[in-house]
Amino acid sequence: xxxxxxxxxxxxxxxxxxxxxxxxxxxxxxxxxxxxxxxxxxxxxxxxxxxxxxxxxxxxxxxxxxxxxxxxxxxxxxxxxxxxxxxxxxxxxxxxxxxxxxxxxxxxxxxxxxxxxxxxxxxxxxxxxxxxxxxxxxxxxxxxxxxxxxxxxxxxxxxxxxxxxxxxxxxxxxxxxxxxxxxxxxxxxxxxxxxxxxxxxxxxxxxxxxxxxxxxxxxxxxxxxxxxxxxxxxxxxxxxxxxxxxxxxxxxxxxxxxxxxxxxxxxxxxxxxxxxxxxxxxxxxxxxxxxxxxxxxxxxxxxxxxxxxxxxxxxxxxxxxxxxxxxxxxxxxxxxxxxxx
Length: 341
Ligand code: PHE
Known about the structure:
Blueprint: H1 6-19, H2 23-44, H3 50-82, H4 101-115, E1 119-120, E2 126-128, H5 129-132, E3 167-169, H6 175-183, E4 188-197, E5 209-219, H7 224-239, E6 245-252, E7 255-264, E8 281-290, H8 292-297, E9 306-313, H9 314-322, H10 335-338
Parallel strand pairs: 1-4
Antiparallel strand pairs: 2-3, 4-5, 5-9, 6-7, 7-8, 8-9
Helix pairs in contact: 1-2, 1-3, 2-3, 4-9
The chain binds phenylalanine.
The site of phenylalanine (PHE) has 11 residues, from strand 8 and strand 9.
């Protein structure tokens, strides 16, 4: 017959516990007391005289509490013992994202231009018709204004809006030219990277939105020669190799004269390859001398100041640099593509 007095059992338990060292042994003792000693107290309980019941009952419950608490404590120390930190294990590499190839290209352009004294500025994507077209000498009947190109914003119940009130998603970063020149007088040198929107059917070289990089330099005696030198130096740096620049006559309502800017193909060195469609040249941007009407929109004295402007697709530059053949890859969100940059 086992000892039935909870007080004595407690004493014996505490002594036994003190005599062992490892958590394993301590756990065994707790388990034994819970399953054997405590159970036998409870099972003999019903045979006790009424006077004893209250005392033994209280003692048994206290004992049970003590055994459970000790058991928990032993388990905790066991966790600490086994959960030690092995500082020699290789660390877990945190998963970092990487910068989108278009953002990388934009930053690179900003860096190169900032070294030539150009300040990076921004403008709103939701623009009014005046800054996007009128102020830039784009006449009212110009096809670019029409619905198939421009995403106009519905302004319900507002009829007869002026072009300063009519909202659209900007189709070109050129919209920022007059915005900036109204507040900042020449001499000025800025670049404007940003997202533009066009209502176009998508294919491997067209997207409904893409990124442009605009440039504007206005001052006394700013000429085409200045433009050619600056843009040549830009592409030299961007492609980190010797490239030639070629200007072809073109037309934009906001520049006169206007040009298309070509760079010699850095892949085949002008021999002709698939990237340059066997021509040896790649068209990269539109440019020209700022039209006097545009300077006048911003109340700049055209007898004193001249300037050049240029604008091209950041997407296109990234496609040339990384030899990517589909613009839609930039917007597809496919990590297998994005992680390569
Ligand atoms: N904004 C023109 C475009 O989107 C490019 C351009 C900018 C041309 C500045 C001339 C001067 O095609």
